[in-house]
């Protein structure tokens, strides 16, 4: 990935402003679209900006480097697939059914990793505090904390509810994802892979009941902008086209 950084800092723009948030979302969507169609090493800030219809100064108002932006784009996508809505949690009725919701979300994550395996192999090879694996692990830690809180509310006694449990879960699942994308198999048995990962979870994590799942039911409502839910297999895929920029976000906008 080729880039230069005229300013320092990650996500320096004020994301409390709706306009800045929309601009960021357009750039992330453009990165996902461009990355799945070309080699990451050939991806440039200029190409992303053309696709997102923003100027380079706008891009650098949000990220100090292209590598940071790419890590955010795909980490946020993978993390979003683990989302379980508050309504689904409330309607689960038992810790075991909660575990089933998270198991379904895990399969969706694996499907995304498999579909764009070449992209994720390259991303997991990026090292450092701002590399994809580190960014994903931090995002997954927040998601894991939500799961821990939901299980505690459902009656599970989770040691380390204050953060240790979530950190352990996030690190383990993220490492399992890295192993999965670097594996030699084609990953056809996503349910089997998900069960193998779940088998490594702590003893307090409830066993999910074996019942049919509705693909995408746990996470489809929480996908980030620029992502669509594929009704055939429940995976999220970058949109192939971007809508025209709103009037207040035409090229030249420096938000």
From TrEMBL:
DNA-binding region (UniProt annotation): 44-63
GO molecular function: DNA binding
Record-annotated HTH tetR-type domain positions: 21-81
Keywords, sorted A to Z: DNA-binding
Region listing for Disordered, in residue ranges: 203-255
Composition skew (Low complexity), residue ranges: 214-226
Top-rank taxon, per record: Bacteria
Bias (Acidic residues) ranges: 246-255
PROSITE patterns per the UniProt record, alphabetical: HTH_TETR_2
Name under which the protein is recorded: AcrR family transcriptional regulator
